[in-house]
Amino acid sequence: MVLDPLFHKAIPILENLEQHGYQAYFVGGSVRDHLLGNSVKDIDIATSATPTEVQAIFSKVIPVGIEHGTVIVRHNKQSYEVTTFRKDGNYSDFRHPDEVFFVSKIDDDLSRRDFTINAMAMNKHGDIHDPFHGEQDIKRQLIRTVGLASDRFYEDPLRMLRALRFVSQLGFSIEQHTLESIKKQVNFVNELAVERLAVEFEKTIAGAYVTSAIPFYRDVNLWGQLPVFKEQPKLTTHVEALNQPLALLYEVFALLKIKQPELDLRQMIRLWKLSNNTYNAANKLVQLLSQYEQNGLNNWLIYQLPESLYVSFIRLIDVLHQENDITLMTIKDVASKLKITSISDVAFTGKDIINLYQNRNKGPWIQSYLNQIEKAIVTGELQNHFQDIKEWILSCHPPEKS
Ligand code: ATP
Ligand code: MG
Q1: Where does CTP bind (predicted)?
Q2: Which of 114, 116, 148 to mutate to test the pocket of ligand 1 (most atoms within 8 A of CB)?
Q3: Average pLDDT over residues 73-91
Q4: Cβ-proximal residues to 367 (8 Å cutoff; 6+ apart), any chain
């Protein structure tokens, strides 16, 4: 099988490590994606060299997680995670292994990995080293733990969410023992840091096979372990009704708020420990989708929609309506014809307003007038010319006689 160009770019790193007497392989998701014939995203490398030894060999090394054996090697403007072969100790806090041991054999490193499809190594010639028969599971389209599922999920319950995430991304089935263990041990998910859950949940709702993955959330009662959903089980129906992937968590929370306006959006975002930016994005989407429901697509709506939310906005309309003919082109077309793109483009300032209404005290009315002008320009009611604006605002708000 032909190697993805991304592997070719990284081969010098394997060679360099080998020339210094160490073993080095491509591992993890990139090997899986290669065997699936999918495009490869980021490339992870495993080596017998310790982080200090890796640092001694390469000139540009960023020590991102030395205690876990991981450094980033920069090569030709690309970043590669290079991780020392390791085994994990106990996971007594369900978050991080208490200790990691560096080991000298690739097989030991592969044995700590979650699923057989993720536990293969590939050398620089493209030969696959596959002690847990991941290639066979790729052919059978099965997600199966490396080793005893109950042990592996006990060690790190996040693997249960990861299993469903891979169902969503790959459309695979879950091997029977693996699935039974998830059902039995799903409550351990409660112990995990919410931030870790959020990463896997987001990848799940974004998977091409999300409609295959989400029913498992009910079957194994994963919903019962997740913030917001465990407190309000009825909300799960909105995610279960998805007929296509979303991409980002703020799209999920916007969807929930639109479906159930009585929900406290800020509280939901807080329970998932997501950022203020996530809240702002969700909130904006909720407001603009509600404007869309009332008035359809118009200049004023698109003016308020940040470019970074165009795609999310369309995706949510797709999810909310059976028939939607709004595309990115439609939105970009409206946006490109807007007379102004922000309030700073308005040919009239706060000072101009103050000059017009000289015998009034300063106050929030100034901003309100500016906003009225802004909206009138965007909707096409008013030209963005100083004189037009002056006459318009005076006619809307005739000055009091002194
Ligand atoms: P993606 O394409 O989404 O990056 P990935 O398989 O590369 O998928 P990562 O989360 O980047 O997933 O992890 C890289 C590799 O590390 C995995 O393929 C797997 O071998 C191993 N791994 C990651 N998380 C765990 C875990 N919780 N337990 C065991 N092994 C894990
Ligand atoms: Mg990865």
Answers
A1: 29, 32, 113, 156, 159, 162, 165
A2: 114
A3: 91
A4: 350
pLDDT of residue 282: 98
Q: 159 a known binding residue?
A: yes
Is there a binding annotation on residue 140? no
Instruction: Pull the structure tokens for residue 203.
Output: 């990848």
Residues with a CB atom less than 6 Å from ligand 1: 28-29, 41, 44, 113-114, 118-119, 156, 158-159
DSSP letters for 268-292: HHHHTT--HHHHHHHHHHHHHHHHH
Same domain as 250, residue 221: no
Residues 147 and 134 in one domain: no
Based on the domain organization, do 265 and 185 belong to the same domain? no
Chosen domain end from 224, 242, 260? 242
Identity of the residue numbered 210: V
Task: Write the DSSP assignment of 101-167 as a string of letters.
Answer: EE-S-HHHHHHTSSBGGG--EE-TT--EE-TT-HHHHHHHTEE-BSS-HHHHHHH-THHHHHHHHHH
**What is the pTM for the complete model shown?**
0.93
If asked whether residues 290 and 230 sit together in one domain, one would say: no
Whether residues 395 and 316 share a domain: the answer is: no
pLDDT tens per residue across span 294-336? 999 999 999 999 999 999 999 999 999 988 889 999 999 999 9
- The count of other CB atoms within 10 Å of the CB of residue 232 is 12
Q: What is the pLDDT of residues 369-397, one digit of tens each?
A: 999 999 999 999 999 999 999 999 999 99
- 26 and 111 co-located in one domain: yes
> Amino acid identity of 308?
S
Residue 379 belongs to domain spanning: 344-402
